[in-house]
Amino acid sequence: MTRMIERWFPCAEVSANSRSGWGSGNAEVGVMTWFAKRPSAQAKAATICSLLPWPDDPAEQQRLQELVREAMTGRYAKAEEIRREVVRSEGDGASSLDPFSGRGMIPLEAARLGISAHALDYSPVAVLASRLLTDYPCRIWDDEPAIPYLKEGTTLIETRPRLVQDVAAVLNEIDIRHRDALKEYYPQVAGRDPWGYLWAITIPCQECSRYFPLIGQLDLRKASKRKNRTTKETFHDPGQSYYIDAETESGTWSVVVHEGSPRRAPTRQVPPGKSKYDSNGRLAVCPFCTHAHDRQVQMRIFEKDLARDAPLLAADIDPDLGKSYRPLEREELDAIEAATTALGEEPRFGPFLAAAPDERIPAGNTWTVQATVYGARTYGDMMNARQTLSFITLAKCIRDMGGELAKNGNSDDYIRALTGYAAAVLARKIRRATRGCTLDPKLNKVNDLFATESSLNFSFDYFEVGLADGPGSWASVADGTLKALETTMPLHSAVPCEVSRGSAISLPYRDRSITAVVTDPPYDAMIDYSDASDLFYVWIKRALVDSWPELGMTAHEFGVQEKQEEIIVKKGGTSNNDHRDRQHYDSLITKAFREAQRVVAQDGVVTIVFGHGEPEVWQRLLTAIHDAGLVLTGAWPAKTEAGGKVGFTNIVTTLTMACRPAPSGRPVGRKGVVEAEIKSEIKKRYLDWERWGLAPADMLMAAAGPAMEAVGRYSEVLDAKGEPVDIYTFLPLARAAVQEAMAVEINHEPLDAFDTRTRFALWWVRLYGRQPQAKSELRWQALASSLDLTAVRDLVADAGKGVCFITSREHVGKINGDSAVIDVALALAAASEEGLQAMGQVLIAAGRTGDDTHLWSAIQFLADRLPANDPDSVALTRVLRTRTGISSAAESVAASNRENILRQEVDDAQLRLI
To answer: Segment Disordered: which positions (predicted)?
Structure first.
């Protein structure tokens, strides 16, 4: 049976819906923190297209296509109809599996359809996230005893699902208990709770020995126009800033808050002549004696454990200004000291867990856990004392409520569900609660710990959230989780997903027992999943020590999540001899794909969602697929990360690839035959791609499917000498075959009629115009053109973190009779401002005439394809308008040159006579 995903995929609908709305996955992401975010639109399309058949009847094909397109209009759209089609094809035994489930975005889509779904992940944190998203919301909890935290009369008026109702009650009760337990350590001022507190780390000056705070930002609230909530009148808010006032005689410093922009320089300053992004960091300038400490000196101070936390300011919630900042009161300073004392007296979470996390941060984590650079050795070191006390209190509230629910008669599963959602809020709150969380003076909020993607940020000046209901508070974070849960609650026809912890290299399923394996595997060195989530793990296992005891079971010597079979390339791991290197990744991803191949049904598919710009990574991935005994049969591009910036690690376009178990008894193939089959197959598929509206750049990526399908018909492919051919060889060929199938014409001239360098340039402009692209795309196009990268690097220059087609002014090549058409065209554009004579000289230097069809066709193409307001488009249009004049000027130059040559010959002859 051919599957839909092997012949068609709703690329346009996935791209459109991945950017916003239901298909973005933003609501699902809000249930619990995890790092890989697979858009719901792509997860849904990959799941249903992997389960649905591809009929032989064209009318049936069209009917199913329309059904899938309609299903892509909403989170639950056409769920019943899709399920009926799957059951009609597969019976009631249809099933799906994601062996790298993460938070469960892909298996969730099968569960929503009412199809048997299985999710597996190596990380305990990811397993918890998957259970909260794909399992518990799909269960019926109506038989559970009423929990003791509901407000009186709630059951009579509550219209929300039972699970949502009870999670809300539990989260609210935790908020009440947390506030009550910590109120003496976060005292009210003027009858209200502060939103939070600004802190800085202090170090001793190596010149005068006085401690001073390390501060890089003095803005507290940016100036802006605001509206009075009472009078509704608009007024100008000058904003707030502060500075450190150092008294040299007493050796003490104080904080001065004032309106407007900063009046002094911060104590952390960019060295003269350096960029703020320089790897050497900023200087720490003592406000007492102005002595400057470079990064190496600062690091030595941290290594000797001489740094100290110091509170600077309090932030109150202001009805009109949002947040207002002030110096701390005496009782607030006393409360901080009391919290430090109380932390030292906190009892353990049972015999094996200290109150404050003492799990060591594994070595080699300077990139992922940036606090290790500044002296943090355990995960308990990442917060100040009062923050740590706050999270110990939250974890105990969650633990205690689990015990109370057990006494109430609630089932173990329901207790795990309710405490699990509470732990999810705990994890989400951690993102706003370490020394890595800074103040955002523009938006009046606290920045995310993961401000730099999946690495845990660190800052010398940071913000601590208090007990008020502001951004980052328990109430605020809990509200986000609750709304996400309510928004994503499935239809009644959904079935709970079976979620388990395990390794993708040893799946606990029988051979040929799964209809479709649909997965989004780890991408090489993209994210350090376990290292980045260990901070969550050490706190979650404390909160769930009784209700989820298995979460705390780990073989890692430091008590963190296991790493042995994690399939990643560890960032910065080489310097630490981390076992998670490229060889480890390539070996284990191959084993994982081999296991997927083992468990998938003979007529089923293994669908792999993958995105990476580097050709070398694709080579390794395709090799892994091949070595796992899989054959790639379909590849479909979608812009699932459209907000990404060129050069960043987040991928803009990903491929959804369908693979099948390789059939036995395949013959040996010959390179020439396989190349012909690839060209023929892509030529046939191109007609469908064009009819379905795939853009040319998307066709290039889609070409991987039919190319690898052709290669997969053979056990191996040999060249003319009988040597094995690397399957990756055929990927650039497939991209070139798309170009050939498109039969691109340059002003009625076939693209193949041009020289190789010009073909490359015109094809690039055909695809991208002047738009910046990732540098990896340049490597792809050079490979497809059978050109060395150095042969075209001067045509596509660096532009920011990407590359862009050069302008004529940037063209530096010398024009002669061997120059490519593209070089002559650019030289003419550059010379156009100098007049006909200059352009005529270019034409003569190139040995070309006004009748050169290829040259003028290329000029016309570039003028049409480049943006209308592009300087080169204007210049080339000028060249076209004056074509006759350029030809005449060239003839005049040529005649003048001939005349000069004749005159020189006469002069030489006369000299010889003398």
So the answer is: 257-276
